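re: ur msg from earlier - yeah i can do the inosinic acid complex, just paste it... oh wait u already did. ok heres what im feeding in:
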Amino acid sequence: MATFINEPSHTFNEYLLIPGYSGSNCIPKDVSLKTPLVKFKKGEEPQISMNIPLVSAIMQAVSNDTLAVALATQGGVSFIYGSQSVEDEAAMVHRAKTYKAGFVTSDSNIKPDDTLADVIALTEKTGHSTIAVTENGRADGKLLGIVTGRDYRVSRMEPDLKVETFMTPLEKLIWAKEGTTLKEANDIIWEHKLNSLPIVNESGNLCYMVFRKDYDSHKQNPNELLDSHKRYIVGAGINTRDYAERVPALIEAGADVLCIDSSEGFSEWQKLTLGWIRQNYGDSVKVGAGNVVDAEGFRFLAESGADFVKVGIGGGSICITRETKGIGRGQATALIDVCKARDEYFKETGVYVPICSDGGIVHDHHITLALAMGADFIMLGRYFARFDESPSNKVSINGTYYKEYWGEGSARARNWQRYDMGGENKLSFEEGVDSYVPYAGALKDNVELTLSKVRSTMCNCGALTIPELQQKAKLTLVSETSIVEGGAHDVIQKDNSPKIK
Ligand code: IMP
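and the outut:
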């Protein structure tokens, strides 16, 4: 007979934290959000820790090299999406690993025979006003000039005017040679009162742009997450099919940590993948596995060699797995159950396997709840998709900006490997939707605001570290009516425009 769990499973929204005693030493500025990313033995330090407990989802609409750099700058880790060719994924990892803070690969490029209308369309798409004019319109093409807002007046010029007629040509530009240091580049920018400085190689091809606004980025980002060579730490997604080809390419490209990307991880496929990695690389390659939603699934993956275990089925914002297939579990209940199993496993073996809560974060305080329930870090898709740095298009609908966000199980992503249960190589039905999310600006601003709330709540609970929060937290289930009580109620709000959450 089937096993019945008669207790309903719950979501984050059904829980609240009850404040604990906070001493006068418990102030947000002294809270440490440092957290382990990979397993470690009792009394030892994990080989990779993060400075903030956030990782970005292994999704086409979320984690590319640009987002990876932006998140590592704030202290977290991106897992570059695996639903692309091995070469393309390795190239993204390589770009993020070789990224030099302050040296930016130009993302707005145009050809000399393109038009003013093309320039305007490009600035709207990228949100950037400095455009490199290169022979072939690519970021590494021969540099012919630059177009900025100072080069054209939309009201006075024809939209079909060719770029070469109004760009600032190379002869009039100040540029610097490849090999220039960031300090030298910044000196040139200050001396000549420039907004940007192109860096060009011996053949005249564009290598990078250095922008005035990026000056001193290191000093502004004390949490940045670097490896021993001062390069950003970067993760990458793999699947249970082509690992023999993909893993070596990603490791060669410099990936610091891998994660098996699968909608359901309690499977022999994951064991085979982890086994292959351990056989070929021992413990030197770090790899997470998942997703699971109960203690049995956790133990299976921990015993199969996972460096961390990811929890969550059906809670993602773009996910329709529960509707389509009838599998899943409320994210809070799944997390609590798995974290309990993790603690038991630690007591038994002396090995601590970090837990990642994946999906279903709607409000910032859900992050604090997940940490309090035992998660070591949180994976977010929708949250990061909203930012400038995510790979998806920014679109304007009725005067409001949105970014596109689609599930890996949607027809758009066609990531059949994520949903693979053996058999044919295809996605026969969808488990995700294609959607819009409200555009929210720069990652840094949002992450800072979110984490300031997390730190503040931790102080309410008397905790200066994540382990302390996990130990001290008191959580209560709430009734439907008390959820209503939690918002503004029984007043007529003067301003009904959207509020910062
Ligand atoms: P979100 O942060 O709530 O948007 O959830 C992101 C998570 O949803 C990802 O990290 C995946 O675990 C999961 N996910 C991504 N694409 C799909 C899909 O198409 N169907 C179901 N789950 C998905």
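cool cool. Residues 57, 59, 263, 312, 316-319, 321, 358-361, 379-383, 407-410, 431-432 surround inosinic acid (CB under 6 Å). ping me if u need the other ligands too
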